[in-house]
Specification:
This protein is 47% helix and 18% strand. The chain is of the alpha/beta class. It has a domain of 186 residues: 3-Layer(aba) Sandwich (Rossmann fold), CATH 3.40.50.150.
Length: 284
């Protein structure tokens, strides 16, 4: 199709350069919206929306600190830094930090953050076929990333490959059948998304979650990738209507139910599954 379009542009039938400029502008706008969205999540006006993200963030921050306290972290890496919220902490926990992403828009944003962090470097890399050195990182962070990657087994194998002997991987991803993910499929339908944006009055764009995994599916992939679970945790409960209409009272209800559901047979209702992992062949 690109070849046909360029051929037609020669005869003035199709303005290839203008179409390409429009496409690039659209892609840039969408990516800018993604960055704006990630900035909003932790400061949302909606108590439930903010809690869903800050509770995961707080667990990840604590897991990183514990991992770093048990060993010297010379090099760490965040795969998929998004808006760069974890980079300042990683900078303080390790001698050198790499922020790696396949999306240039996110890397440009991370570069702005890294300008104040002298030990942070940014690089373009695809974790499913990484060109970064194997066994080079004592601490690897990958949070809310693999659900955006169709080939998650290759991504997990890539994360395992980066781990140094005794290194730790902190990983999180949504649960496939959690109410938030199910409701998102409805919320992003044409006509419905406008109503959702009106209710929240904040950036709301499709999640891009193309590869949601159940706990069972993820654990099988982790095992196949050569990773062992050291710690696991589930957090975040979204109740439709309660979250939107009941404010802080609704949040208290969701938090109470979250505690009841955690470690029960119904914990698949919680939004996020979080893990601390090591390589199978690691000594410690």
């Amino acid at each position: 199709m690109p070849c046909i379009a360029r051929f037609l542009s020669i005869f003035g039938v199709f303005d290839f350069e203008r179409a390409n400029t429009i496409r690039e502008h659209k892609v840039s706008r969408v990516k800018s919206e993604l960055v704006a969205l990630q900035e909003t999540l932790y400061t949302s006006r909606n108590p439930t929306r903010m809690w869903l993200h800050t509770s995961r963030r707080d667990w990840v921050n604590n897991a990183l600190k514990i991992c770093a306290s048990s060993r010297t972290v010379k090099r760490s890496i965040e795969v998929g830094p998004g808006a760069g919220g974890y980079l300042p902490l990683l900078s303080g926990l390790s001698e050198q930090v790499i922020a790696a992403d396949i999306e240039q828009e996110y890397l440009e944003y991370a570069l702005d953050i890294a300008s104040d962090l002298k030990n942070v470097q940014c690089t373009t890399d695809d974790i499913t076929r990484s060109s970064l050195p194997a066994g080079a990182f004592d601490l690897v962070l990958c949070t809310e990333v693999i659900e955006h990657i169709a080939d998650s087994p290759s991504a997990l194998a890539g994360l395992r490959r980066l781990l140094s002997p005794g290194g730790r991987l902190v990983l999180s991803t949504p649960q496939r059948y959690s109410p938030l993910e199910i409701c998102s499929k409805v919320a992003f339908l044409p006509g419905v998304i406008e109503l959702v944006r009106l209710i929240y009055r904040e950036p709301i764009i499709p999640t891009g979650h193309i590869n949601l995994l159940t706990e069972k599916e993820l654990k099988l992939q982790l095992d196949n990738a050569g990773l062992v679970i050291l710690e696991q945790f589930k957090c975040g409960l979204y109740l439709p209507v309660v979250a939107e209409a009941m404010g802080r009272v609704g949040l208290k209800i969701e938090q109470w139910l979250e505690e009841k559901l955690r470690d029960s047979r119904l914990d698949w209702l919680l939004w996020t599954q979080c893990y601390v992992l090591k390589a199978k062949d690691a000594d410690a």
